[in-house]
Design goal:
Porphobilinogen deaminase, Double Stranded RNA Binding Domain, D-Maltodextrin-Binding Protein, domain 2, transferase, hydroxymethylbilane synthase activity, 321 residues, 5-stranded mixed sheet, single chain, globular, Porphobilinogen_deaminase_C_sf, binds ligand PBG, alpha/beta, Porphobilinogen_deaminase_C, 3 domains, 10 helices
Length: 321
Amino acid sequence: MPPVRVGTRRSTLATTQSGHVAEMIRQRLGREAVLVEVTTDGDRSQAASTSLVGSSSTGVFVSALRDALLRGEVDVAVHSLKDVPTYPAEGIVVAAVPLREDPRDVVVARDGLTLGELPVGSVVGTGSPRRAAQLHALGLGLEVVGVRGNVDTRIGKVRSGDYDAVVLARAGLSRIDRLAEVTEVLDPLQVLPAPGQGALAVECRADDELATALAVLEDVPTRAAVDAERAVLATLEGGCSAPIGALAEVVEGEDEEELWVRAVALSPDGTLSVRMSATGSPADAVGVGTRLGAEMLADGAGQLGQPGPAATTEADKVREA
Ligand SMILES: NCc1[nH]cc(CCC(=O)O)c1CC(=O)O
């Protein structure tokens, strides 16, 4: 049998993630696997240093890999699940969602500091509207600025003294072996991660028999959790342009497993938010997430997209205080 061709972007994070999946394919499917680099429009525009903020709300990274998959240039595409759009792609299935890494956001700050220890007016870099809104909502008077580029570039902004801190996904740092840089792990009670953060999507062509074989890479509780988180996101996207955080977990209940979901939608400046949680059966993950999203819309999550004048004034007060 020919080796399984695993498509990957060129970044350290992407090749590490894809290499990890290739290794699982060798061990659990007993098939040879090779990495095939796919250059994306996103990588090209980053190389040309145009204004691409962090990752891919547009999904450019994801779609280039999917195109290579559909053209038959690769057999498997590995994505960070949080970068994958919630709507399905024609002819492609998520054949497996492996066990996920710690999904929390972390801080890399100067002098080993935590967010709470940073003085008012400290500059914190993030390209993520979700992180920016939640940083503002902490009420610490932090100045949040955009930051582009890969994980190394972003940490470099702290090293160079340009920024006092940056906020990143713990999973990304873990995968490229940079956890030593972390100065604080953010409690999801204060900062909820992106839906799907820390998890990988292993995709293949829907009509490829590889789809069935790849199922051995699946971690069932992780799939339930990310299905719920992404259902919250998909439901809110229908009526709301606000930044969204969500985190689900399968926990041992009295006599059966239970699925917990927490979610938040915020105005971009963090002054307004709708925060809710739900529990249900892991077997009904999409239902639990969808109902939670609908409840959040009923509670005004759809009105958070644009901050009102009152909200802006409040934020200014905090900054001047
Ligand atoms: N935004 C880009 C991106 N996409 C996936 C990860 C990290 C790995 C993950 O969250 O699964 C990152 C870096 C980050 O957000 O710090």
